[in-house]
Write a structure and sequence with these properties.
CATH class: Mainly Alpha
CATH superfamily: Oxo-4-hydroxy-4-carboxy-5-ureidoimidazoline decarboxylase
Number of strands: 0
CATH architecture: Orthogonal Bundle
Number of helices: 9
Distance between the termini: 9 Å
Low-confidence stretches: none
CATH topology: UraD-like
Bound molecules: 1-(2,5-dioxo-2,5-dihydro-1H-imidazol-4-yl)urea
Helix content: 55-70%
Order of helices and strands: HHHHHHHHH
Strand content: under 5%
């Protein structure tokens, strides 16, 4: 969608474009209400700041939309297709990496009680695995801050893909 189109779309259409980026109502509403944006850069800057910080409940709700790294969602939705493309650095036929990611995901979920989340776009499987192992040593409070930041990065990157100049 072009920025001009996004600026003049009705609220429901603008919100529908934003929701696959991160399904947090406060974020979606803040952005739709702040239109029109003078430039794509202004939109992306506003989006990075909106709803910052996310509340713990918003983070938990948003996480539910993210499949585990290494598990490519097959649904025919905007969200699933974004996740597949973000995980393009993870080769599903590489069994060794898949097993290491699955083991790391299990350990992370056992320790923190939620899915391991990382901005996967621009990262290789090896980088993701290294980050997973490093983050396993974190405290829950350290992870809260990292997860919120990763969600923001994913949302803004997705928005870059959704809105063109
Ligand atoms: C994801 C995802 O779906 N996209 C991304 O960048 N990271 N999932 C995850 N568990 O980190």
């Amino acid at each position: 969608m072009k920025l001009a189109e996004f600026n003049s779309a009705d609220t429901a259409a603008a919100a529908a474009a934003l929701r696959p980026c991160i399904d947090v109502r406060r974020w979606v509403e803040a952005i739709t209400n702040a239109r029109p944006f003078a430039s794509r850069a202004a939109l992306l800057g506003f989006a990075a700041d909106a709803a910052s910080p996310f509340t713990a409940a918003e983070v938990e709700a948003a996480l539910a939309h993210h499949p585990r790294i290494g598990e490519r969602p097959e649904a025919n939705t905007a969200e699933a297709s974004m996740s597949r493309s973000e995980q393009s650095g993870v080769d599903p036929s590489d069994n060794g990496t898949a097993a290491a990611l699955a083991a790391g995901n299990r350990a992370y979920e056992e320790k923190f009680g939620r899915v391991f989340l990382i901005r996967a776009a621009g990262r290789t499987a090896a980088e993701i695995l290294a980050a997973l192992h490093t983050r396993l040593a974190n405290s829950p409070a350290e992870e809260d801050a990292i997860v919120a930041q990763q969600l923001r990065e994913i949302a803004v990157l997705r928005l870059e893909g959704v809105i063109s100049e």
